[in-house]
Write a structure and sequence with these properties.
Blueprint lengths: L1 H6 L12 H20 L12 H6 L1 H18 L6
Length: 82
């Protein structure tokens, strides 16, 4: 859910994501899930282990996923700035 929340801020940057806005959604979601899963020791926390910190674990992954897909999208456009 935190990855989807971070994805909403993608409207503030130009739409150069690989796959457009849907690609940005996938990148934020996948990055959040992957990083949180790794930081939890490749285990999904149970109901009693879920705290507010679990939401914050997903933020770096969502931002990294969005950054990666933005960079790939700029490169796919043939933009020499990348």
């Amino acid at each position: 859910m935190m990855g989807i929340a971070i994805w909403h801020f993608a409207v503030f940057v130009p739409d150069r994501f690989l796959g457009g806005i849907v690609g940005a959604f996938f990148a934020a979601w996948l990055g959040a899930v992957a990083v949180a899963f790794v930081l939890n020791g490749f285990d999904a926390p149970g109901k009693d282990d879920t705290d507010l910190i679990q939401a914050f674990l997903a933020i770096p992954g969502a931002v990294a996923g969005l950054g990666l897909f933005y960079w790939l999208g700029v490169r796919a456009e043939g933009n020499p700035e990348a």
